[in-house]
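Lab channel / #folding
Pinned by the channel admin:
"Please post every new chain as: sequence first, then the structure tokens as a reply. Keep commentary short and put observations after the output so the thread stays searchable."

First post following the new format, from NK:
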Amino acid sequence: MIALEISFWLSAALLLYTHAGYPLLLWLLARGRRTQVEAPASGELPQVSLIIAAYDEASVIAAKVANMRSLDYPRERVELIVASDGSSDGTGDAAHEAGADLVLDLPRGGKIRAQDQAVERASGELVVFSDANSFWAPDALRELVAPFADPAVGYVCGQVRFTNDEGTNQEGAYWRYEMAVRSLESRLGGVTGGNGAIYATRREAYIVVDPRMGHDLSFPFNMVKRGWRAVYAPSARAEEKMVPSIEGEFARKRRMMSHAWPIVVQGGLASPRGYSALYALQIASHRLLRYASPFIHLAALGTNVALVAGGAGAVYLATLAVQAAFLLAAALGPVVPLRPFKLAYYYVLVTASLAAGLWDWLRTGTPAGWEKAEGTR
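Reply from TO:
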């Protein structure tokens, strides 16, 4: 019985720390620290190569190129490259007609290899990346390159806002929480993850990674291991359409996690070598514990049931009732049109996606190619 009690309370404490205690700890540690490196008031803006890897994006690529061309940044200092990854719908022709400086028509090899080949052809001192369905604010590029005024900065990610005109997805609430955590991490050891909508690296800092392992998770920690700073620029803003449904979000995150688990297990993220003590704490708290949360939840529920079955006190009846009530709310989420029920449903499915992605990777491996998430164009 003692072992069950220890296991239950340890599981509960880890879950509470992961979702609430860790952000609070970051807030306490970050108080008084500067939030962002600002660009010098004068001086020439850096030469950038703006890279868009695209697979069958003919429906949006012209609008994307136009958006990039309209940015408030000197035209002569931006090289716009579209890397078409085996597209069969005329993506390359549409990008060329829309005004891309360089269009690469590549055989299908996956997003990472398309980006690698674009970087090989790039001439800018900074290489900047975006997705075909992400649209930037006019000042986004200026804001994104500003932190590179600090020579220690090797990687910068901006802020993406997910729009949802209709549907059930609750990703927006989670994403606001995630961005708050990212901002605090940036002020301390550095960010532990990025996003594909808006990010940049120094040309000299760019890393060629396994094609299964996306830049979003593999770049920040690898930059830190190599002595660079990886930071967040919240004023560099982009917008992207959200997957309409919670079920669609589950599928998207499941696919993402099938790419993330190889980075954790084989790609070096879990190895503390090269991390400062603070950054190691951030990786353990934000990534390792977060990814382990479905299994921690199962441990908390299983030990709680065993304790109640074994005649434990009223406190364990209460904790089991709380867990059962949450699961019931999640089960009712698809049919009850109230936000607390939808948020519970969202949390359960997104947490389950972490384990489902691990299962997919272990069972079938992770392909290098990618498909568009339904409803995001």
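NK: The mean pLDDT is 91.
TO: also worth noting, Residues 48-244 form a domain with the Spore Coat Polysaccharide Biosynthesis Protein SpsA; Chain A fold (CATH 3.90.550.10).
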